Amino acid sequence: MYIQTRDLTKKYKSRTKDGKAFVAVDSVCLDIPPGQTVGLLGESGSGKSTMGQMVTGLIKPSSGQILCDGQELSYPIKGRARQKIQILFQHPEISFNPVLPLIKSMTEPYRLCHKDASESVVLEDIEKFGLHREHLYRTPRELSGGELQRAALARILVLEPELIVLDEPTSMLDVISQAQIIHFLIDYQALHKTSYLFITHNHKLAEMVCRKIYHMENGRCES
């Protein structure tokens, strides 16, 4: 899957007296080749998370194009692209129902893909991330940030994505959990040729994991 954006723009209506629209993302062009990690580097408020959410179809662009293997994707994104383009959020708790045990949320993608959603199958998958049976029967508030992030990643991978937007995936984690997530992502990519759009404010981390880095500032982007 080769994802490209062409002049992708997101504007929000003004709430101020002058009526001037706020431009969160301004005519951004990205190329995300198959099997590569492309970085989107910028400070908070630069527009990088808005960009990532447009690529995954969570936010409707004001203008511009998103191309998948040369074909334009329209909003809302449907079909194969909807399943194969996924996002891992900075705050993993938003991926889970806060009042249900983890297993209830974990089984959803299995059913979506018509896969076996039995406890034994889910358990085998989460154990790759250092999680165990007892974690499945806890609510999100009973899990640490690192445990939730690993569960969120395990849940995404059930869908066998071809592109994962990684929106500050380690910024809320301790150093050990950060290293675990990064090493797993590198190993997984080598095996499955998955593409990553790696959104971060961390220059050193971007340089370590990304083949190409785009810099965002005030909604504008340059490589």
Describe this structure in words.
The protein has 223 residues and is of the alpha/beta class. A hairpin with a 2-residue loop joins strand 4 and strand 5. It is globular, with a radius of gyration of 18 Å.
N-to-C terminal Cα separation, in Å? 21 Å
Question: What does the largest sheet look like?
Answer: 6 strands, mixed
Poorly predicted residue ranges:
none
Q: How many E strands?
A: 10
Query: What is the SS-derived class?
Result: alpha/beta
Give the overall shape, derived from the CA principal axes: globular
Largest sheet, spatial ordering of strands: 6-7-8-3-9-10
Helix proportion of residues, in percent?
25-40%
Kindly estimate the percentage of residues that lie in beta strands according to DSSP.
25-35%
Rg (C-alpha, Å): 18 Å
Give the overall pLDDT as a whole number: 93
Output the number of helix runs.
Answer: 9
Summarize the helix and strand pattern as letters. EEEHEEHEHHHHHEHEHEE
Quick description:
The chain is an alpha/beta fold and 223 residues long. The chain has nine helices and ten strands. The strands form two sheets. It has a six-stranded mixed beta sheet, with helices on both faces. It has a four-stranded antiparallel beta sheet with strand order 2-1-4-5, covered by helices on one side.
